[in-house]
């Protein structure tokens, strides 16, 4: 098993990966997806001796039969299963130490996150002052969108026909006629 000095940084990595991408996660359990990400980000998966399939098989082996997650204790068992496979030629203890060194202190990476493109083409296409026709009505003079008001014809329940110039003058006309 792991030496007590290795447990703390290993648990920190476990917790970070268990919380990554899941707002409802408690940090005490690791899903299969998070386990695969941990193995990939920490370079446990090398593509030769350990593949994504190996990682999935080990996950299935260490988890409870009906569970969809693994606990920290099961996580340590999974690392023990992968260590000899990843570090061939080393003793079981040395391989376990090596795999712990890969995982300790690591956290999820955001590789492949889409960045905002800032090019002349994008600027030209998003310049609201150049919009024409019905699209022009969706923005005010400053170029800010009007929201729902700019997308839909909102019905005014005043009883008057749309764009009637004397709207709201009925009561004053009736009072003038009574005099």
TrEMBL record:
<dbReference type="GO" id="GO:0001578">
    <property type="term" value="P:microtubule bundle formation"/>
</dbReference>
<dbReference type="Pfam" id="PF05517">
    <property type="entry name" value="p25-alpha"/>
</dbReference>
<protein>
    <recommendedName>
        <fullName>Tubulin polymerization-promoting protein family member 3</fullName>
    </recommendedName>
</protein>
<comment type="similarity">
    <text>Belongs to the TPPP family.</text>
</comment>
<feature type="region of interest" description="Disordered">
    <location>
        <begin position="128"/>
        <end position="157"/>
    </location>
</feature>
<keyword id="KW-0493">Microtubule</keyword>
<keyword id="KW-0206">Cytoskeleton</keyword>
<keyword id="KW-0963">Cytoplasm</keyword>
<dbReference type="GO" id="GO:0046785">
    <property type="term" value="P:microtubule polymerization"/>
</dbReference>
<dbReference type="InterPro" id="IPR011992">
    <property type="entry name" value="EF-hand-dom_pair"/>
</dbReference>
<dbReference type="InterPro" id="IPR008907">
    <property type="entry name" value="TPP/p25"/>
</dbReference>
<dbReference type="GO" id="GO:0005874">
    <property type="term" value="C:microtubule"/>
</dbReference>
<feature type="compositionally biased region" description="Basic and acidic residues">
    <location>
        <begin position="134"/>
        <end position="156"/>
    </location>
</feature>
<dbReference type="GO" id="GO:0015631">
    <property type="term" value="F:tubulin binding"/>
</dbReference>
<dbReference type="GO" id="GO:0032273">
    <property type="term" value="P:positive regulation of protein polymerization"/>
</dbReference>
